[in-house]
Design brief:
Blueprint: E1 9-16, E2 21-28, E3 35-42, E4 46-50, E5 57-64, H1 66-84, H2 94-101, E6 107-115, E7 118-123, E8 125-130
Antiparallel strand pairs: 1-2, 2-3, 3-8, 4-7, 5-6, 6-7
Amino acid sequence: MTTSIHDHHVVALNVDVAARTIRLRTAYPEPSGPNFTDVLFEGVEGYTFRGDALGTILFDIERVEAISLYREYAVEMQRTYADSGGHGPWVRSESAAEAFLAGGEIQGYRVSSSIGLDGAIWARGLSVSGG
């Protein structure tokens, strides 16, 4: 990312299923008023969040190897898929995930925070605007 989101507060989290996007609207507190930034994930193929977005102060959004990120979250994603069909069928096993992610078109993004929401997003692209 070209714009730092460290210590930004999440003010909105929007998942648009039809558009396959996730938008994080953030604000960095400044004496003159908040400095807003939008982080947009496009071509979303999967995501999982832990914690609550209310009160989140971001640490970082880091691009990581998609299959490694899957391995971190595989147990809970596989359980969700088995229980309710949540997530795409590519999460059902490590071999299915490896095959799905093999082309390199889908990137893994780790969302970390000092307070609040943490998670993972698998998407085809990321853009940052504002700030």
